[in-house]
Amino acid sequence: MPTELLFREDAYLRTADARVIGASERGIELDRTIFYPLGGGQPGDTGVLVRENGERIAILDTRKGETLDSVLHIGAPSSTRPETGERVNLEIDWPRRHALMRLHTALHVMSCVVVAPVTGGNIAPEKARLDFDIDMSLLDADRIERETNALIARGVETEIEWIADDELDARPELVKTMSVQPPRGAGRVRLVRIPGIDLQPCGGTHVKNIAEIGGIRVLRIRSEGRRNRRVEIALAG
Ligand SMILES: [Zn+2]
Fold first, then answer.
1. CA–CA distances in Å: residue 203 to residues 182, 190, 220, 227, 229
2. 82 alpha carbon to ligand 1 midpoint, in Å?
3. pLDDT over 90 for what percent of the chain?
4. Which helix (H) or strand (E) holds 166?
5. What one-character DSSP code corresponds to residue 172?
6. In this structure, what are the phi and psi dihedrals at residue 24, rounded to the nearest 5 degrees?
7. Ligand 1 centroid to 108 CA: how many Å?
């Protein structure tokens, strides 16, 4: 069953009301949600569903369901299952999500400092990484850190655009990340633009202004195979 994805239009929603449209051992489905489901290297949100009687159901993970735009809110195996039709209040773990948004947006910026095909990536609340198909001698931690932070300091606003699937097919240069398929669905693809810096298909959550990232530190650079030179970063503060 499709869920209205509120985070797609406003990544800053910390709470919302929703109605339960299904609940099984696989997870709880809602008519609308602010919980981002695992995808594109960004982990699923955690938080709480609050029932009308005040009971709190902890959500430990969020995953995509089998059909387009369906979202499964996953509680502990022993937790209460709400009734279909019931109204609930949603609360995401905002400090965790905000750290993920800052690191996620930082990876977009860093992907413009290291000019090479991206072969992998992952985001966690405390650190994030991109893998590049590049010679190790071309990766200099100090330079990556300095140039990424210089771009972040420009403080530009991120923008969302949608293009048709066939328009993306005609512009393959937009797809930098070979390991992650663009977030297609219903004939259109979501693009994230950081004006003057980056443009790529992405379904994740980003900060409004890249200044909100603050800055990054390169934690380490190491080889994970010939085509996977891994650059790991953390927020500077
Ligand atoms: Zn993104």
1. 8, 6, 27, 25, 24
2. 32
3. 82
4. helix 165-169
5. G
6. -140, -175
7. 6
pLDDT tens digits for 42-91? 999 999 999 999 999 999 999 999 888 899 999 998 899 999 999 999 99
Ligand 1 centroid to residue 204 C-alpha, Å: 5
CA of 192 to the centre of ligand 1 (A): 7
Burial 163-193 (b: 16+ CB within 10 A, else e): beeeebeeeeeebbbeebebbeeeeebbbbb
In the reported structure, the alpha carbon of residue 49 is separated from the centroid of ligand 1 by a whole-number distance in angstroms of 26
β pairing state of 32-33 and 4-5: parallel
